[in-house]
UniProtKB/TrEMBL annotation:
Enzyme class, first EC level, given as a word: oxidoreductase
Binding residues annotated for heme, in chain numbering: 276
Cofactor(s) the protein requires to work: heme
GO biological process: epoxygenase P450 pathway; xenobiotic metabolic process
Membrane topology: Peripheral membrane protein
Name of protein: unspecific monooxygenase
Major subcellular site: endoplasmic reticulum
GO CC terms, sorted: endoplasmic reticulum membrane
Keyword Membrane: yes
InterPro entries: Cyt_P450, Cyt_P450_CS, Cyt_P450_E_grp-I, Cyt_P450_sf, Cytochrome_P450_fam2
Protein family (similarity comment): Belongs to the cytochrome P450 family.
Record-linked PROSITE patterns: CYTOCHROME_P450
Length: 353
């Protein structure tokens, strides 16, 4: 490079630094003192691990191409999403090759039939990309909400062992230990159902539910086309309907005679035309998972139950349970039955408590 070119480059760099310092000084003159922020990345290097992960999440949404060159856990998330998308595409193509237009087997076949009917419409929303997104939404929405409810529900049972004991008593009375729980048991277990209802009310996995649209002018001064987000917590924690809205109390869903009390305020799956499509499936999964776990295991906390915090943590738009550890020894009677059937032992070995 010629000397004049090097001098010009140095002057440009020097002037750029002066302009940056001058603008930064004038912009921050009236602000309280704080750590110096670098260009582009700001104070990212001074953030803690948790805050840094949040910063990277926001930066990934703003600059996805830029984040491809930055190492971190976001690469694993993208890799997993790509693998899921590839798996779904394989299933879609498999359905396409064996499609029977008059005998749809499932959602994918029905979507394919609609795609064929509207293939010449440029405004049609029935495309392969939308089919992939719909399938992933169906899977991810059900997995995350059910797992979060169960995880937080088990934490609640750790804090209240007396409630766990009552549920197990009802399991012993209705189901016993000789067979697995089934949905036929659902209507015969009011206390277990009350506990499940209270878990969903108290946890409120999605406090701010799916957006709705106002299709006509209303008396509430909401114009047609206004987007409305139902705040489910406003009804799930209504003190007029639930005497102890901030406490976990299964009796809020029980009549005095012990039967299950239904409430119009109980809407963890939202309301209206955008109510969760998998509500019946979710109810079945929660009932079968919880009863199966408590039929076979006793849940015990590693710490004093008094110090267990059951308050859900809000993450983006869902309530997630906090991390915790538990001890879940198999029930002694089940261990004894297994040893007798598998090994022919008449008595429990001394090493089993």
């Amino acid at each position: 490079m010629e000397p004049l070119g090097m001098l010009t480059l140095f002057l440009v760099f020097f002037i750029s630094c002066l302009i940056f310092l001058a603008s930064w000084t004038s912009r921050h003159r009236n602000l309280p003192p704080g750590p110096f922020s670098l260009p582009i990345i700001g104070n990212a290097l001074q953030l803690g691990v948790n805050n840094l992960s949040q910063f990277l999440h926001v930066l990934y949404n703003l600059l996805p191409s830029f984040m491809a060159f930055i190492p971190g856990p976001h690469h694993r998330v993208k890799k997993n999403n790509d693998a899921l998308r590839e798996f779904v595409l394989e299933k879609i193509e498999g359905h396409r090759t064996t499609l029977g237009p008059t005998t749809p087997r499932d959602f994918i076949d029905g979507f394919h039939t609609k795609m064929d009917q509207e293939m010449h419409s440029s405004a049609s929303g029935f495309t392969t990309d939308n089919l992939v997104i719909s399938i992933l939404d169906l899977c991810e929405a059900g997995i995350e909400t059910i797992s979060a409810t169960l995880k937080d529900g088990l934490l609640i049972l750790l804090k209240y062992p007396e409630i766990q004991g009552k549920v197990r008593e009802e399991i012993d009375q209705v189901i016993g230990q000789t067979r697995r729980p089934c949905m036929a048991d659902h209507g015969q277990m009011p206390y277990t159902n009350a506990v499940l209802h209270e878990m969903q009310r108290f946890i409120s996995v999605i406090p701010l539910n799916a957006p709705h649209a106002v299709f006509a002018n209303s008396l509430l001064y909401l114009l047609k086309g206004t987007t409305v987000y139902p705040v489910l917590n406003s009804v799930l924690r209504d003190c007029k309907e639930f005497p102890n809205p901030e406490e976990f109390d299964p009796h809020q869903f029980l009549h005095e005679d012990g039967t299950l009390r239904k409430s119009d305020f109980f809407m963890p799956f939202s309301a209206g035309k955008r109510i969760c499509l998998g509500e019946s499936l979710a109810r079945m999964e929660l009932f079968l998972f919880l009863t199966t776990i408590l039929q076979n295991f006793t849940l015990k906390p590693l710490d004093d139950p008094e110090f267990i915090d059951i308050k859900p943590q809000l993450s983006s738009f869902i309530n997630l349970p906090c991390s915790y550890k538990l001890c879940s020894p198999m029930l002694k009677r089940l261990t004894q039955d297994y040893l007798q059937q598998s090994h022919g032992l008449a008595e429990m070995p001394s090493w089993i408590a």
